[in-house]
Design a protein that fits this description.
The chain contains 13 helices and 4 strands. By secondary structure, the protein is mainly α. The protein has 2 domains: 113 residues, no CATH class; 190 residues, no CATH class. Helix 6 crosses helix 8 and helix 10 crosses helix 13.
Length: 360
């Protein structure tokens, strides 16, 4: 071709222009023939007939029909929640984001249903599987499954954060304090902003709540750490009780990991925003599931409803003056109070153990 182009350039006859145009036209035809044919709406993208309508119908019959193929027990295992809660979530995300509304394309073909997209997202969250894993059953391709997951977790965060990521209110805090006191740790908090509390342990008065912590935390008055290498029976009793109580939080996170495998496996997304949305959405749905199942005695017969009784009035008034901040910080970082509270709890738990043994 290079030789031909040089020959054409140096010709001096009157038909040069017409000849060059003719040859360039033949060249373009040959080059175009080498390119991939245009397939679908994206260049080089091949469209597969996944029979999405059949997939939507099968999904509905299997789980959402009046008489579904699979009972509620299997539904809860595979979706990680009850069918009533999933329907509530699906309806909320569909109203929040138009992406989940089933639409028709220009050819009049129906797109994926809301339940297909939500199911694709939940299967990835629940099992931690790659996006294309859900294609065979839900009939959704990899790119759509990824987009469904991103949209779903973002909608969960937008719609439900205010209610299910709120700080504990007075009733919540009082319930948690009541549960902790029954287990031998009066004034102990589980989470949230520390409220004003007053309690007495081993003859000493305290006016600040505390958290149970391990050895990496500082020796502050708001942290009660375990005893390292306890040397006597009292210290051993305290260490055992403190570590058992602290494991409640670890178990709660472990339950969430078991429920949503995506949070315990390697990250499948590169952008921090999506990873953050996935984590927060899983926390929100975990809280929603706890609330949903708490009212179902058939699921949690061991749930003690007396734990929710509110017996104490807890103040949640904020600091009125900035000057009190410095004083509060000194109280929090007081290592002497930390050691005193720890020793008082050692004695309190030992006395409590003796009382329980005598009662038996």
């Amino acid at each position: 071709m290079a030789k031909m182009r040089r020959h054409i350039i140096y010709r001096k006859d009157d038909g040069l222009d017409n000849f060059m145009l003719l040859m360039m036209g033949e060249y373009r035809k040959r080059e175009c023939g080498k390119r991939k044919r245009h397939r679908g709406s994206v260049l080089g993208h091949k469209v597969y007939d996944r029979r999405r309508e059949e997939g939507a119908k099968k999904l509905y019959q299997d789980y959402f029909d009046e008489n579904p193929t699979y009972p509620e027990k299997i539904f809860r295992r595979r979706f990680r929640m009850s069918s009533r809660l999933l329907n509530k979530i699906a309806k909320a995300v569909e109203e929040h984001d138009h992406y989940f509304v089933q639409k028709e394309n220009a050819a009049g073909v129906c797109g994926f249903s809301c339940l297909q997209k939500v199911t694709a997202a939940l299967r990835q969250l629940a099992y931690g599987v790659p996006a294309d894993y859900v294609d065979e059953y839900v009939r959704i391709g990899e790119s759509t499954a990824i987009e469904s997951l991103r949209k779903f977790v973002r909608s969960i965060v937008d719609v439900f954060s205010k209610e299910y990521l709120r700080a504990p209110n007075a009733d919540d805090t009082a319930r948690l304090l009541n549960i902790a006191e029954k287990r031998g740790f009066p004034g102990m908090l589980a989470n949230g902003e520390a409220p004003e509390v007053k309690y007495t342990i081993n003859g000493h008065n305290y006016d600040m709540g505390y958290y149970l912590a391990d050895g990496i935390y500082p020796t502050w008055s708001t942290f009660v750490k375990t005893k390292k290498a306890p040397a006597n029976v009292k210290d051993k009793n305290f260490a055992k009780a403190q570590e058992a109580q602290r494991k409640d939080v670890e178990r709660a996170f472990g339950v969430m990991q078991a429920r949503f495998a995506i949070v315990r496996g390697p990250a499948r997304f590169w952008d921090e925003a999506t990873l953050r949305d996935i984590m927060i959405a899983c926390v929100i749905m975990h809280n929603m599931i706890i609330e949903d199942e708490r009212n179902d005695d058939s699921l949690y017969d061991s749930y003690d409803k007396n734990d929710a009784d509110v017996k104490d009035v807890v103040s949640r008034a904020g600091t009125s003056k900035f000057t009190s901040f410095g004083h509060m910080r000194e109280e929090i970082e007081n290592s002497h109070v930390h050691r005193q509270l720890q020793e008082d709890l050692v004695e309190h738990l030992w006395l409590r153990r003796g009382q329980m043994e005598n009662h038996e």
